[in-house]
Amino acid sequence: xxxxxxxxxxxxxxxxxxxxxxxxxxxxxxxxxxxxxxxxxxxxxxxxxxxxxxxxxxxxxxxxxxxxxxxxxxxxxxxxxxxxxxxxxxxxxxxxxxxxxxxxxxxxxxxxxxxxxxxxxxxxxxxxxxxxxxxxxxxxxxxxxxxxxxxxxxxxxxxxxxxxxxxxxxxxxxxxxxxxxxxxxxxxxxxxxxxxxxxxxxxxxxxx
Length: 208
Description:
By secondary structure, this protein is an all-alpha fold. The protein has eleven helices and no strands.
């Protein structure tokens, strides 16, 4: 058991080092030698944990994606949060949360890390709609929503939200961002057949 724990720690050390280096130099600008020097390990140790630099990047992408999907799933499964509020909170959870979120997002959005950004978006587009669909089905059962296409509606919302609110795609001021958020909420109500203003009321939480 102790050996497994040490292997896990070493693997995370390699990922942390690669994460920092990719942020500084980009994926293409970082060599395996750079990673070896930063961690202070032999090449054989690196290849024991990862087959290649691409393998390291995929592991980092998985770590970022797990964090996003984990945050979304935690909110979605919290029965103490009203259905409408859970929908909005889960959508907002697509942004990485935590103390290092700004650093992480800046890192992902660098031009040299475009491939990492693209792969993370793929995880989000495939992973978040099923989570949201579960909440929508609860709302349908409770008479809050009325749509025969809960998954497809959430797929549209996730793709729109994750694209338009991506600073690399659409540059906007905070005021423009809030306008788009309220427009999105208004259109989610229509997509779901919800009572007009029901989701907008929940948005007051985020205005504060």
